[in-house]
């Protein structure tokens, strides 16, 4: 249905999706991905609202699936007086991880956040004032805290690229039976070796006694909240593209960073590298568009 001269402006997540990428390349359309549009600080303003929603939902979903009837260990996230709270491990301290931590801390869980940025860990440590451990992420740290955890939330992001596999199948096998893993990175291929995309209708499956919640498009479960949050962020860019697509893409470098496919070329390096396409820089690919 798409053709040359049309603009597709939405979430694309192409790096783990060769079939979609092939079809978009063949269409000749101009494809702008929400998840790679940047702001002046290098952040991802169109991904942030959905990351906030997914981060908060991850704890809500994890707490529910820790219940015995859902296949979980039968653990209450907050515990009760005389009974220790659940241990929650959050891998990644970005927008998803921060929002997950906020929920988990608020519910009274025993929370650990892993991240590879010391400045980010300092920010989180100041934010949570000792209510969450902020630990540098290494393979050893992931193993140590995952084996203790009742709930593990995968909150990693590599801009525009496939997510790294941070929990191996062997590590999953050694985790507590009835523990829950929530893979928020599933839209980017997932960050657990045993992850496969699920739906809101059938959100979980069990591998080696561990409950996996790997719903693609988690915010779709709270569509009203998600839609309003997303529209707030995406509408100004949509208006700019509608009024003057050539000018908007040329004059706004942050919007140009969102260009992933243009007239048969892959214009985002992480996608090209992940899928084996030649990479054409966005400004180079757009020159013909302006003529």
Distance between the termini: 25 Å
What class, by secondary structure content?
alpha/beta
Number of helices: 11
**General form:** elongated
In this structure, how is the largest beta sheet organized? Answer: 7 strands, mixed
Helix content: 25-40%
Beta percentage is 15-25%
According to CATH, the fold-level topology of the largest domain is Rossmann fold
Any idea what the radius of gyration is? 20 Å
The appropriate CATH architecture of the largest domain is 3-Layer(aba) Sandwich
Task: Determine and state the CATH class of the largest domain.
Answer: Alpha Beta
Number of strands: 11
Structure explained in plain terms:
- There is one protein chain.
- The chain has 291 residues and is an alpha/beta fold.
- The protein folds into two domains: 7-37 and 232-290, Rossmann fold (3-Layer(aba) Sandwich); 48-216, 3-Layer(aba) Sandwich (Rossmann fold), CATH 3.40.50.
- It is built from eleven helices and eleven strands.
- A seven-stranded mixed β-sheet has the order 5-4-3-6-7-9-8, with helices on both faces. A four-stranded mixed β-sheet has the order 1-2-10-11, sandwiched between helices.
- It is elongated.
- The protein starts with 6 loop residues before the first strand and ends with a helix.
